[in-house]
């Protein structure tokens, strides 16, 4: 550990003009540093420079991120402004179209469901010779369709407008993210 050379004083009085000094005199605050201390101070200076460099990189990255976020926000607002007025009208038309598609399919689905439940209940009492080949083919086709894609039989609207579900999911995710922030 480096030793400071301190001016030793002998006080005969509290007044500075009456003090006597002994030993070597060094200017106040001057240290005689060892090579190890100089090396450590060099390392500290390098680390400070590295920290300053990293802080400037961080500031640049924050700036880039905020610019990117601002661009996305601006694009979102522009798209919402352009499409916002027509979205309720377009959704209204879509709902009307869905009603036109859904209502006949719903009644058809209910009829098929009633028919199947009757067939299941009366399974043992049916005379199979009364069925025509076309009826059996229809039942086979229905079973094959259900096996291939159950949603297309149960919910035909999803097969008619497949992108509506994707759009709803994406808008739902955007709303959830907006609520988190």
Describe this structure in words.
The protein is mainly α. It has two domains: 8-69, no CATH class; 86-180. The chain is built from six helices and two strands; from the N terminus they run E-E-H-H-H-H-H-H. The protein has helices at residues 35-84, 87-121, 133-148, 150-154, 156-160, 162-180; strands spanning 8-10, 20-22. A two-stranded antiparallel ribbon has the order 1-2. The longest helix has 50 residues, at 35-84. It is elongated, with a radius of gyration of 43 Å. The protein starts with 7 loop residues before the first strand and ends with a helix.
Question: Helix and strand layout, with pairings?
Answer:
Layout: E1 8-10, E2 20-22, H1 35-84, H2 87-121, H3 133-148, H4 150-154, H5 156-160, H6 162-180
Antiparallel strand pairs: 1-2
Summarize this, please?
The chain is mainly α. Helix content is 72%, strand content 3%. The chain has 2 domains: 8-69, no CATH class; 86-180.
Helical residue percent? Answer: over 70%
**What kind of assembly state do the chains in view correspond to?**
single chain
Beta-strand fraction estimate = under 5%
- Calculate the mean pLDDT score and round it: 66
Looking at this protein, list some descriptive labels.
mainly alpha; disordered N terminus; 72% helix; 181 residues; 2 strands; two-stranded antiparallel ribbon; 6 helices
